[in-house]
Amino acid sequence: MESMRQLLAHLALDLASVSVLTFAVYYPRHRRRDLIPAYLTLNVSVFALAAALAHTGGSGGIALGFGLIGVLSIVRLRSESIQSEEVAYYFTTLVLGLIAGLPHVPFTLASILCALPLAVMYVAGHPRLYARTARAVVTFDVAITEPEAVDAYVRLRLGEPLSWKIQEVDYVRDLVVVDVRYRWSPAVKRPREPAAPPTVVRAPRRAGL
C-alpha cells in the first residue's frame, strides 16, 4: 500500500511537471497543437516504463539502461518538421518522466530535480532572450556567392548578418538559397510591393450585337 501511494504521488508530480512544460511554457510560445499529444504521451510512457523497470529487482538497473536506449531511439532528431527547440522539449519531457518514474527517489528530491529542467527551459527559451536575433531561409534573385555580396544583400533586406550558409546555387535560374542568422534592425527599409493592377470589369455583350 505504501508503494502504491508513493507511485501515485510520483505520477501526480510527473503530470503536473509535464503540464506546466507543455501548456504553460511550450504552447504559448510555439502554438503547435500537433506536438502536444506527442509530448504528453512520451512523458507518460517513459514514466510507466521507468516505474515498471524499477520494480524488477536486482536486474532493474540493467533493464532500465536498455529501456532508456530504446526510448531515446524513438525521438527523430533528423525530422525536418521538428526544430531544435522542439527537440529540446522532447528531451525535457523524457527526463521528467524518468525522474518521476523512479519510485526509490525521495519525493522532495524528485520535485527539485523536475523543477530544474523546467526552469532552464523557461529561461533559455524565453522570447525576450535575444529577441532581435532571427533566422530565415532566403532565396536571392541573383546567383552571388562572394561573402561581401551576400553580406550586403542580407544587410539591405533583413538586417545585420551574424552568420549564413549557402544551401543551393542555381546558375540556370540565377538564384541562391541561403540560410541566414541575422539581427533585425528597425532601420532596414524593405522594398515596397508593387501595386496590383486595377481589375477591369466588362459588361456582358448582348445577343445579336
Output the keywords.
alpha+beta; elongated
What would you note in describing this structure?
By secondary structure, the protein is of the alpha+beta class. It has helices at residues 2-30, 36-54, 60-72, 84-101, 107-124, 147-157; strands at 133-140, 159-170, 175-184. The longest helix is centred in the N-terminal third of the chain and has 29 residues, at 2-30. The chain is elongated, with a radius of gyration of 26 Å. Mean pLDDT is 79; it is low at 191-203.
Task: Summarize this structure briefly.
With 209 residues, the chain is an alpha+beta fold. 52% of the residues lie in helices and 14% in strands.
Number of helices: 6
- Across the major sheet, the strand order is 1-3-2
H and E order: HHHHHEHEE
Biggest sheet descriptor: 3 strands, antiparallel
Q: Gap between N and C termini, in Å?
A: 95 Å
Strand proportion, as a percent range, falls in 5-15%
Fraction of helical residues: 40-55%
Low-confidence stretches: 191-203
Structural class: alpha+beta
Give me the Rg, rounded. Answer: 26 Å
Instruction: Give the overall silhouette.
Output: elongated
Task: Give the secondary structure arrangement, pairings included.
Layout: H1 2-30, H2 36-54, H3 60-72, H4 84-101, H5 107-124, E1 133-140, H6 147-157, E2 159-170, E3 175-184
Antiparallel strand pairs: 1-3, 2-3
Helix pairs in contact: 1-2, 1-4, 1-5, 2-3, 2-4, 4-5
